[in-house]
Amino acid sequence: MSARVSRRLNSHRGVSRQTTLPPRPSPTKFANTVTVPPRSTTDDGIQTYRTRRGNNRPLPLPPSLDPLRRAARINFKQPGPDPDPEETERFHAQFVRNPYARMLASPLRLCTLTQARLPADLLAKFSIRLDPTTSEPHLLPSHLYLQSLPDEERPPRTRAAVLRSVYLSLRYDVIAFMTAKGKWKGFQELMAASTPREVTSKLRWRADMPQYIRDLLRRGVTWRMKRALESADPAILEPCPGGAFAAGDFDDVSAVVYIKPKLWSDRVKATHANLKQVPLLSKTLRGHFVERLKEMGDRLPERFRVVERPMAQISGSHSIFPPQLAEWVIFPDSWVHEVDYRGKKIPVFSLADLLGEEKARELVDGTEYADVDCVVLKNDEKTSRLHQSLVKLERYVADGI
Length: 401
Known about the structure:
Region (Disordered): 1-66
Shape: flat
Helix content: 40-55%
Number of helices: 17
Oligomer: single chain
Order of helices and strands: HHEEHHHEEEEHEHHHHEEHHHHEEHHEH
Distance between the termini: 117 Å
């Protein structure tokens, strides 16, 4: 090793011997020089500091350890007090006896055609079912079929493969529209995401689907009404010789049911016929809508303005809005016959209109109501399902006039 390198090493060793680190402060000295603040809170009452052991420096309190937050979380998870049994029983009794409440309580589903979200009881659910003879897949209203059967005749529920179902508004005009010209085939692409392609490509649709659904609804009304008539229970229904306007003489009435006379008036038929002549997407109305948007001009955002297209000489001016159904088509008025009953309205049904005169006579033959023209339906849990079936059928038949 050269003398020059030796001198450099000796110089570094001298520095290392002379250099010393500053003494580390003792915990006691550090604690004496720092004042530990007490547990403090913010303006909203949330604690932000806590005292550590050994008088060490305070640290922020994490939200997971904040007593206020923990208490709020625990209180949220703690079950509340049990409801009053009498109140619960009273509410449940009123609920099961109210057919409209039960229909509105059904889960919301989307109508594929009108894009309206309605309770499931007001929609027809279409599922894929195999033909027992040909094994071809058919799109059928299986839920309505099960409801049309008496309880003892319904097949046991099985855990079948979960395939996508589609919903349509339970109205005659909607079902007839989807049946005409094969418009139901749009369901094949809609169901392709969750259903094998070899199944959707072979789907079938009944050519008489509107009439088939009407027959299912009639079948459900028939067996429920038959049991109510055969029971002859005054708590369920009673004869009403005075007709609908005499319903006030009876207690706890939910509906009036005519067995023989027809109720559809010429005025209702004429109104419905006029509405049938109005197209779903009127070009005249769309033209007025476009002109109105033009008048608004710059007050509209850029993406909502109506612009002239290069092909204006062929197709004319048009908007960028997608075509939409009229509101009265999505949410139609229901033509329900009503009568005043002790300060409220109750519906009036006609079995001759809903089932046909021959079927209505067959229902009452051999019962105590063979010579009765009108009965009142009592507000009871046993009649709730019958009332719902009558509402669905009348709504469907009224659209098919």
